[in-house]
Amino acid sequence: MSQSSPANALADASTLASERALLERRARLLGPTYRAFYRNPIHLVRGSGVWLYDAQGRKFLDAYNNVASVGHCHPRVVEALSGQAATLNTHTRYLSEIILDYAEKLLGTLPPHLGHAMFTCTGSEANDLAIRIAQHSSGGTGVIITDFAYHGATIATAQLSPAAVGSKGVPAQHRTVAAPDTFRDHGRAAHDFARNVAAAIEDMRAQNIRPAALLLDSAFSSDGIFFPDAPVMREAADHVRMAGGVVIADEVQSGFGRLGQGMWGFANYGLEPDIVTMGKPIGDGHPMGAVIVRPQLVASFGSNTGYFNTFGGNPVAAAVGIAVLDVIEGEGLIENARMVGAYTRDLLDSLQGRHGMVANVRHNGLYFGVELTAGGDEALAAGKTSSVVEAMREDGVLISSCGPRGNVLKIRPPLPFARDNAEQLAETLDRALSNW
């Protein structure tokens, strides 16, 4: 029976009506802030590995969701979660071995100067706690961020997320600096990044603001996905430390082997952060987060201010976290990110040679930013980028976009992404770009 048959047309109409009713119910119950991806939102009902399935049984290649770090519904993670949930789940005011086992295992993946693990339920909570610790330990209040960063949804982290609240939403004691754009203007912003951080510190001092921290996403994800030179990043960190502040590495998006050169994105720059924050990829999507910190920074904080999170680091979360680390190691997912990432980069580079609107391909492991241009017309480039994302969704591959101009394709698949998945991604992107 052909797709244009009356029976299929009737089924399509029924599906559209069902999804429209679901959208209307969603708006009525959840309100206007819950926005859905895509012009035709997908009603997902199942996930497995790098695949997502909708209510009609159609499968989509997931090339976007880093939260499901080791793949959707990984059997080992599900088994750990359900087994511990059937045994015990309670808060951390009671003694428990499993949270200590997890802390030891997680700390073992990090530099030895980071000796304490503090657990949260989200990355936003982790960044919020990191800011509190930085301000307490430094005696300062000012935090330096990039000008289109995203670091969370609490009051403190939203105010440090210009991507969400705009530059006017950043409080006066903080400073934004240009992201280290390695593409535009011959990479001038990347070359000047450390200098810009130093200038921000001097501006704080001129306003009698004491610096507390430099808060960095190692992949500059919301800024457009950039991987600047390591010496510039280390110099920026030095400026902050000399001013009495600390360096916070936000590894929510770049951590857990995604960049293919080790477990943590900050290591690519040779940085030794004072605090590292993690979010939901830590638990393959289970609501978890963590703050890893130099012990001396929390000695005074712990005695004077303290911290307690009722279910941060609960036994179920700890079991899930251990399983995720076991899967990353046991399935060689960091090496997979390196090898498949390089293969994917070659495929995307070949598209740049065939499609003039592909201006730049940025890559590290399984993290890609594909910048699209339209003869200097930023609005047109953003519109084309959105259309490419929509076309790929209709063709069965899920990606998104990012950057202050909205013209960078954001490709960030689960870590088990394979060579044949990369080929499907590239072929689908080729078709979508061919429409322009």
Number of strands: 15
Distance between the termini: 32 Å
Series of secondary-structure elements, N-terminal to C-terminal: HEEEHHEHEHHEHHEHEEEHHHEEHEEEH
Helix content: 40-55%
CATH class label of the largest domain: Alpha Beta
Write the CATH fold name of the largest domain. Aspartate Aminotransferase, domain 2
Number of helices: 14
Task: Characterise the protein shown here.
Strand 1 and strand 2 form a beta hairpin. Helix 4 crosses helix 10 and helix 13 crosses helix 14. The strands form three sheets. The chain has a seven-stranded mixed β-sheet, with helices on both faces. The chain is an alpha/beta fold. 42% of the residues lie in helices and 16% in strands. The protein has two domains: 132 residues, Aspartate Aminotransferase, domain 1, CATH 3.90.1150.10; 256 residues, Aspartate Aminotransferase, domain 2. The mean pLDDT is 95. The radius of gyration is 22 Å and the shape is globular. The two termini are 32 Å apart.
